[in-house]
Amino acid sequence: MSITKKVSVLAVGLGMVGTLAACGSSSDDTGHGSGDSRTVTLVSHDSWAVSKDVIAAFEKNSGYKVKVLEDGDAGQAVNKAILTKDNPQGDVFFGVDNTLLSRALDNGLFQPYEAKGLDLVLPRYRADQDKHRVTPVDTGDICVNYDKAYFDKHGLTPPKSFDDLVEPEYKDLLVTENAGSSSPGLGFLLGTAARYGDDGWQDYWKKLKANGVKVVDGWEQAYNEEFSGSSGGKKAKGDRPLVVSYASSPPAEVVYADPQPATAPTGVADGTCFRQVEYAGLLSNAENPGGGKALLDFMLSKTFQDDMPLNMFVYPVREGAQVPESFRKFGPQAQDPETLDPAKIADNRDQWVKSWTSLVLK
């Protein structure tokens, strides 16, 4: 759901990530704690965010200071973590999702740890249950979002499905992220593979390319620069009224608007959704495994899980965690999202991305 993101502009706008980074103790040039066993370092994609009072309570109760290192989009962050696994930047990595999980596990990125509270995680979100190398943290749906004002102005019905996106009336309207470097971009690709199968997804992308789909590097650029319906996109004069983002993006546009509108300015094409689950794990060569384990326990606590939705705009995975009313009203989870078996993703992901790159980017 890295909950792709995720809706990182909101966290950045509130300065939360910067606040967290300031909580860390002294570090060396790599940013890793310089042998300070009371500092626990979290490596994440750009969308990590948590309320100041919640992280302060963790630091007070655990005795650890939290240092956060952001490493770009989820795909980039995972790849870098794998390359540096022998001398990791931190103790815990957050933001590997079900689209990239097998790559992280196959490369030995994480060491086993069964986090406290795992028994309270909804079973459908658990993974690697024999070794417990990752802890589920959040979930969300990668979906096409649309700019309501654009479609009202032009008298068009917004698309509802993957099939709709290749119709002539939506030519040159969609922007998506690079499937090779972005988790929402990869999730969208996997959604089409799930929808059209091994023999049909490439033909679908040929049609989508012919219909003028635009591909950019990551979610931040797609949503906050190219998409005409987001607050950031309006400022940047974005001209694409369709974007690959999240089902929880519309409530974000409401919650952080001033004044708040009665309805969300953006909507979701429910027939384009792919279910994402994000995980965290204790890095194999963590300098502070004790602190890492405490942080993983905290991420499954009800306090964190209740706090998370309105900070990272994802859904909690713990039973009984609170879901904000704005989510239920403006960004409910998809009723029938596309899914793929993790083993199928593992067997096909790299070849699918390679084929997609040749087909769409060249």
- Cα-based radius of gyration, to the nearest Å: 20 Å
SS-based class: alpha/beta
Portion of residues within helices: 25-40%
Can you count the beta strands? 11
Shape: globular
How many distinct helices? 17
Uncertain residue ranges = 1-34
* Largest sheet report: 11 strands, mixed
Query: What's the average pLDDT?
Result: 90
- The helix-strand sequence is HHEHEHEHEEHHEHHEHHEHEEHHHEHH
Describe the 3D structure.
The protein is of the alpha/beta class. Helices cover 39% and strands 17% of the residues. The protein has helices spanning 8-14, 16-21, 52-62, 74-83, 101-106, 148-153, 162-165, 183-196, 201-210, 219-226, 231-235, 249-255, 289-299, 302-307, 309-312, 325-330, 342-361, and strands at residues 39-44, 65-70, 92-97, 110-111, 135-147, 174-177, 214-216, 242-246, 266-268, 274-283, 315-316. Strands 1, 2, 3, 4, 5, 6, 7, 8, 9, 10 and 11 form an eleven-stranded mixed β-sheet that branches. The two termini are 29 Å apart.
